[in-house]
Amino acid sequence: MKTTIAEVHKHVGEEVTIGAWLANKRSSGKIAFLQLRDGTGFMQGVVVKAEVGEEKFQEAKSLTQESSLYVTGTIVEDTRSPLGFEMQVNDFELIHEAVDYPITPKNHGTEFLMDHRHLWLRSKKQHAVMKVRNEIIRATYEFFNEQGYVKVDPPILTGASAEGTTELFHTKYFDEDAYLSQSGQLYMEAAAMAFGKVFSFGPTFRAEKSKTRRHLIEFWMIEPEMAFMDHEDSLQVQEHYVSHVVQSVLKNCTIELAVLDRDTSQLEKISAPFPRITYDEAIQLVKEKGFDDVEWGDDFGAPHETAIAESFDKPVFITHWPAEIKAFYMKPDPKRPDVVLCADLIAPEGYGEIIGGSQRIDDMELMEQRYEENGLTGPAYEWYLQLRQYGSVPHSGFGLGLERTVAWIAGVEHVRETIPFPRLLNRLYP
């Protein structure tokens, strides 16, 4: 019977066959220990000379790293294994012998590993990070589907920018100018006016020449947009969504979190509601922590966000930012027009902003004023203005950066390890 490593718990005491690769091996006298992986997980196969014979045992000892094979044996419980099971190997068939696999069981430099990203993905830690990423995506679909959201796919090629063109990749669209999308938000607002509650999940691009551990050139965003919801409604959706994702990873990725040595006690604290502070209070807080050069109207950098996060054991919302440093479409606070009804969600443990969101301007005249102030002219923005012309309603939305969220939940320092094939300032290969 063929099965997978993820399913061996259903076959204790049974003889099964698994297609696998040899991640590593060691031998001790008359026993060989094969570290097997099949994509669904990692498991040890034990080859005993007395049971398989001299010839097969010597063949097992000569297997090379990353060779592929069919392994047949009996599944037994093993409390020492993270998986809880191992295979007593009866037989195996070599499919392909790998020769001189470059990523050996020793320390390699980051650039070497990034040059071999197509192979590095096979390693136990990288496999665990990608499984956490997959669980976050699965839990995202689960949350929004259960809440009655409709998934809508915005275009990647656009004729307009959501937040200015200075950090956009420009291309020619036949005889027109076009850009790679930095956000699907404007299109999601249109979708919300048709379906009420929507979300998108797709790649976005920022031509930002940054080399920090938090930045990628190409990354993935989850962007919900909600009609008839104000700023407060949106904050509640955000905190319940993030809580759901974290708890799903804790429940379904126990092996992966253990592989990553993640301190899960920090994640177990993550449940709605989240603390909230205003931008004014955040300015005061960072000043108290020694950042005397920060003034009202400044944006926060990574050190400031970390200082703020250290004061809380959950993600914290920073609300009511100065209008002058936020996007043109954000709704001003009716009680204080110099700030907007928005929030950034700062993750704990120094991982920085993972969500940015706001209530959107729904007033036609005010949006026309914002167009004029920001020089948004031409047909590329006309359709967006019409959303306020035909049945405008209060609406809000937000965007969650997947890779930063994976880095935080998995406890990985650099976002380059949270996406299968990262695109960095100096890296377009592989």
TrEMBL record:
<dbReference type="InterPro" id="IPR002312">
    <property type="entry name" value="Asp/Asn-tRNA-synth_IIb"/>
</dbReference>
<dbReference type="InterPro" id="IPR004364">
    <property type="entry name" value="Aa-tRNA-synt_II"/>
</dbReference>
<keyword id="KW-0963">Cytoplasm</keyword>
<comment type="subunit">
    <text>Homodimer.</text>
</comment>
<keyword id="KW-0547">Nucleotide-binding</keyword>
<dbReference type="InterPro" id="IPR006195">
    <property type="entry name" value="aa-tRNA-synth_II"/>
</dbReference>
<dbReference type="GO" id="GO:0004816">
    <property type="term" value="F:asparagine-tRNA ligase activity"/>
</dbReference>
<dbReference type="GO" id="GO:0005737">
    <property type="term" value="C:cytoplasm"/>
</dbReference>
<comment type="similarity">
    <text>Belongs to the class-II aminoacyl-tRNA synthetase family.</text>
</comment>
<keyword id="KW-0648">Protein biosynthesis</keyword>
<keyword id="KW-0436">Ligase</keyword>
<dbReference type="InterPro" id="IPR045864">
    <property type="entry name" value="aa-tRNA-synth_II/BPL/LPL"/>
</dbReference>
<dbReference type="GO" id="GO:0016740">
    <property type="term" value="F:transferase activity"/>
</dbReference>
<dbReference type="GO" id="GO:0003676">
    <property type="term" value="F:nucleic acid binding"/>
</dbReference>
<dbReference type="GO" id="GO:0140096">
    <property type="term" value="F:catalytic activity, acting on a protein"/>
</dbReference>
<keyword id="KW-0030">Aminoacyl-tRNA synthetase</keyword>
<dbReference type="InterPro" id="IPR012340">
    <property type="entry name" value="NA-bd_OB-fold"/>
</dbReference>
<dbReference type="InterPro" id="IPR004522">
    <property type="entry name" value="Asn-tRNA-ligase"/>
</dbReference>
<dbReference type="GO" id="GO:0006421">
    <property type="term" value="P:asparaginyl-tRNA aminoacylation"/>
</dbReference>
<dbReference type="Pfam" id="PF01336">
    <property type="entry name" value="tRNA_anti-codon"/>
</dbReference>
<dbReference type="GO" id="GO:0005524">
    <property type="term" value="F:ATP binding"/>
</dbReference>
<dbReference type="InterPro" id="IPR004365">
    <property type="entry name" value="NA-bd_OB_tRNA"/>
</dbReference>
<keyword id="KW-0067">ATP-binding</keyword>
<dbReference type="Pfam" id="PF00152">
    <property type="entry name" value="tRNA-synt_2"/>
</dbReference>
<protein>
    <recommendedName>
        <fullName>Asparagine--tRNA ligase</fullName>
        <ecNumber>6.1.1.22</ecNumber>
    </recommendedName>
</protein>
<feature type="domain" description="Aminoacyl-transfer RNA synthetases class-II family profile">
    <location>
        <begin position="130"/>
        <end position="430"/>
    </location>
</feature>
